# Entry
Amino acid sequence: MNQRKIGSLTLSGLIIGPLLGSGIILLPSIIYDTSGDYAIFAWLIMSIIGLFFAYLCGELTLMFPGEAGIGNAIEQAFGQRMKNLSSIFLMIAAFMGPIAVMMTAAEYLTTWLFDSAIKAEWIAIVLLILSGLTLLFRLSFLGNLSLVISSLAVLILTSGSAFSLLFHHRTELVSQAFHAPSFGHSLLLLFWIIVGWEIIGNYSAEVKNPKQTIRKAIFISAFVITIVNLLIAGAVQWTDFSGAQFSIKLTGVLYPLFGGLSIGLLTIVAVGLCLTTYLMIAGGVSRLIASLAQTVSALHFLTRKSRNGAPVAGIILLIMIHLTVATLVLLHIVTVEKLVALANAFFIANALIGIFAAIKLFKRPLMKGIAVSLSLLFSLLLLRSSVVALTIIAVLTILFMTVKKGSTWMSMRKVG
# Structure
């Protein structure tokens, strides 16, 4: 069945776009406004941390592969309940996060094509339906699609940034005083560029030669993501072409090379990266749902897959949930900002449990040291989450740790 499994290049396509995501469009200007000429050092520090986190997630996946992702490592370290708790955290995040991602894409399309004549929420709903249906295709197709989109995005962003740096660079690299509080805030904001590596493990059952493929894909992806992040951040910081006349500041970086096409190209890049983010998160979580459903007889219908291996029942469930949440946004019952805050907290909580598992499972002092350092950083980030998110996380954790062992939802024992 190897012909149905994906290689390192295709897996890289599923990684690069989502890890760049909308953050590479929004964060460079925000970080520069926050830290000024020292912004590039914040990017450099977080890029290094991201490399360590990517390596840690990859090694955990190789130690315990399967559709449950790093949940398998968590089970080995702490038992079935903690694995289920981390899986619940990831699923809750995936129920809300994709709506915010598609709203970002919809807002770019509304500004560029429709001049705000159509509400962004309606465009987001259409994008959610189309993206959800795309998940029904074979994983190799999704990986190649993401690879094409990611390659196009990288080409546009890096070429525009490089051109601006070469021909419109500032003569003075550092002219401002260092401000520690602002720099620290930038580091916290930049944590979002490293969250996402933990989902790679959910695809480990569908790659050929996992040990070689996953390690190679992580190396390729981490290298490309780091270069793109630093190049764009440098262009925003060190080019003298003013972005003040543009509604989207990053357009000023692309304008010297692409001129009037800049806004359109930036919209295409933003929509493409948002699409790849959706495909990675929703695709990975739909596989997680199928894996967990095998352990509960009442949910066995969620294990259904199509002939090409797509977890069709999990995908349909996600589409229905996403459309429900999008409708709540359309009706102004919830806001995108609240969804982002909640989703980020649950993504971090899931990743943090995986890091704790790494601390227990890794034997080498270097790997343990990396895991301990990451646990401290992620804990700090989680503590800055909203009170609502922290309360839900605390309540779920207490329930999973204290409810009677025989409870179906807590233990999710295998049936049959």
Observations:
- The chain is about 70% helix and 0% strand.
- The chain has a mean pLDDT of 84.
- The chain has one domain: 7-411.
- The two ends are 27 Å apart (CA to CA).
